[in-house]
């Protein structure tokens, strides 16, 4: 059984290619206890329950047992936009609080320790193709949340 955590970027992230808002972010680089993390809040806002991102408000008193925090940087992923692929994003923490998120593109892609130079080039190229093919939509205003 593979465990992961749920993530709620705030403000929400949009797919860089089709512009749709992405929900149901998951990640395996936190504690992986099926916790729900919301950007801007140090401790998990929920644990192992049927929360949807829309109901992810912090109920004081219900999750005080969790003292886990997130790593300084971590990767999350989501699907469900108009593109037939997983969209990845980087989360960044300051003082153990998740403060920033950005969707992974060919501009900001960071290879992992095990990524060869050849793989890195290939991944960047695939990201570029995905984003630039879709970016022909005449909608220059869709980046207004950044
Ligand atoms: Zn998309």
Count of helical segments?
1
How many DSSP E strands?
7
Helix content percent band: 10-25%
What percent strand? 15-25%
Shape: globular
Poorly predicted runs: 50-63
What is the arithmetic mean of pLDDT? 84
Q: Strand order, main sheet: write it out.
A: 2-1-3-4
Largest sheet features: 4 strands, mixed
Can I get a quick summary?
This protein is an alpha+beta fold.
Descriptive notes:
- The protein has one domain.
- It has one helix and seven strands, in the order βββββββα.
- 23% of the residues are buried.
- The protein has 146 residues and is α+β, with helices and mostly antiparallel strands.
- It has one helix at 117-134; strands at 5-8, 25-27, 35-38, 46-47, 73-78, 87-94, 97-103.
- A four-stranded mixed beta sheet has the order 2-1-3-4, with no helix packed on it. It has a three-stranded antiparallel beta sheet with strand order 5-6-7, with no helix packed on it.
- It binds zinc ion.
- Zinc ion binds at residues 15, 17-18, 20, 81-83.
- Zinc ion is lined by residues 15, 17-18, 20, 81-83.
Labels describing this entry:
7 strands; four-stranded mixed β-sheet; 1 helix; alpha+beta; about 150 residues; binds zinc ion
């Amino acid at each position: 059984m593979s465990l992961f955590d749920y993530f709620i970027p705030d403000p929400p992230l949009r797919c860089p290619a089709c512009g749709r808002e992405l929900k149901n972010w998951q990640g395996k680089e936190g504690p992986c206890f099926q916790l729900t993390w919301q950007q801007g809040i140090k401790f998990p806002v929920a644990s192992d329950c049927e929360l949807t991102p829309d109901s992810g408000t912090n109920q004081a008193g219900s999750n005080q047992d969790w003292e886990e925090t997130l790593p300084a940087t971590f990767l999350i992923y989501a699907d469900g936009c108009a593109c037939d692929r997983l969209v990845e994003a980087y989360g960044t923490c300051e003082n153990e609080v998740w403060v920033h998120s950005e969707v992974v593109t060919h501009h900001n892609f960071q290879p992992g320790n095990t990524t060869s130079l050849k793989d890195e080039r290939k991944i960047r190229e695939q990201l570029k193709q995905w984003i630039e093919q879709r970016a022909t939509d005449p909608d220059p205003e869709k980046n207004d949340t950044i």
